[in-house]
Design a protein that fits this description.
Structural class: alpha/beta
Number of strands: 15
Order of helices and strands: HEEHEHEHEEHEHEHEHEHEEEHEEH
Largest sheet: 7 strands, mixed
Shape: elongated
Strand order of the largest sheet: 1-3-2-4-5-6-14
Number of helices: 11
Helix content: 25-40%
Distance between the termini: 41 Å
Oligomer: single chain
Length: 371
């Protein structure tokens, strides 16, 4: 265990003041990461950034633990509890059992679980209406697909990811009733979150079936999808499966880089990914020029950063409450991204349409499925 803690605790401390000036009553927060680590470019990183913002602005001390294996998560969470941290936060389904176990062992302490529900009364379970944000990006995919086929790459085959798939599929078909959504998951174990190589293979198989827009809800594995889009960039008419053809060309007037024009001459259409959790649009700027075609159509924003920050603030202010919280469009917990990288792809008319859809979901006029 000593070796484990020495090798994996890898504690990075973000302080709002130097250690010498910290007051004795400074709130201490521990965050336990796994499956891709705190810089996975996706869900973990969003939560990490929320903790860092709290450290900068709320005068709290934040330490993190990165587990080399999901079985090690409980050791990190228990270490924070043993030291009497005011709040210990775990991330995702894989952390649920560990958070719940340690919370029951320490009923006087506060715990947070992001993206899953714990039965322990001293755990604040922060969940998201993933299906709502996914419906919006699916709607945009339906408006912009050139083939009428779009893809979904799921990470671990669990109910939390099923919500992404269900919302995305419903959104695509609301915008394009005849569209087809082809889906594939990466596995049934936590390794599915950290396997970009397999995700890259899946992306290739979905493109071979005619998918020109790939939505990935797979944590760090999603980087494999982005890498595949970077290398491939487009679909050729000659490579489409039997019976498939190009039905639109929404991006004909968007300026293209010289590299894209060389690689994608003749009868082709661009290939896009849709990012997840954080705004991954900048990762689609393959030529480092936002003025040319971006390959990130949009991103489904899952604001784990805001959720973690708000929870830490509640603990600091003595207002912690256990139980389940569900953050959707109304609460700003999910959304979609339009910025300088994809503004040429998402027209003002499309923004108006998607905002009307968003308002309909918030008002309850549009019911988004969860499975």
């Amino acid at each position: 265990m000593k070796r484990l803690l020495t090798l994996t605790l890898a504690v990075t401390t973000a302080l709002a003041a130097s250690p010498l000036t910290l007051a004795q009553d400074t709130v201490r927060v521990g965050m336990a990461f796994h499956a891709g680590g705190k810089f996975d470019g996706s869900f973990n990183q969003a939560a990490y950034e929320g903790g860092q913002r709290a450290a900068r602005t709320l005068g709290v001390q934040v330490k993190d633990f990165e587990a080399g294996d999901p079985s090690q998560v409980v050791g990190g969470i228990r270490a924070f509890a043993r030291e009497g941290f005011d709040l210990t936060v775990g991330l995702g389904t894989v952390s649920n059992a560990s958070v719940t176990q340690v919370a029951r062992e320490n009923p006087e302490l506060h715990f947070g679980l992001v993206d899953d529900v714990s039965p322990a009364p001293n755990v604040a379970s922060l969940t998201f209406a993933d299906e709502q944000g996914s419906y919006l990006v699916g709607y945009l995919a339906g408006l912009n697909t050139s083939t009428g086929v779009v893809g979904f790459v799921g990470g671990m085959d669990v109910p939390a990811v099923h919500r992404f798939e269900a919302g995305y599929t419903a959104g695509v078909r609301a915008a394009y009733p005849g569209a087809r959504v082809v889906t594939q998951y990466l596995g049934t174990t936590p390794d599915a979150w950290t396997n970009p190589g397999k995700a890259k293979e899946v992306a290739a198989s979905l493109r071979a079936r005619g998918a020109d827009i790939l939505f990935t809800a797979a944590g760090a594995s999603g980087n494999g999808v982005i890498d595949y889009v970077r290398q491939t960039q487009c679909l050729r008419a000659a490579d489409l499966p039997a019976g498939a053809r190009f039905k639109s060309n929404n991006f004909a007037r968007v300026p293209k880089s010289a590299a894209y024009q060389r690689a994608c001459a003749d009868d082709t259409r661009p290939l896009f990914f849709i990012g997840v959790d954080r705004n991954q649009n900048p990762q689609g700027d393959f030529d480092r020029n936002p003025a040319t075609l971006n390959h990130g159509l949009t991103s489904m924003m899952k604001r784990a950063d805001n959720a973690v920050y708000a929870l830490i603030r509640e603990v600091r202010d003595g207002e912690f409450k256990g139980g389940v919280r569900r953050l959707g469009l109304r609460e700003g917990g999910v959304g979609y991204a339009v910025d300088r990288y994809n503004r040429a792809l998402i027209s003002p008319a499309q923004v108006l349409r998607i905002e009307a859809v968003k308002a309909g979901i918030i008002a309850g006029r549009i019911k988004v499925p969860t499975r």
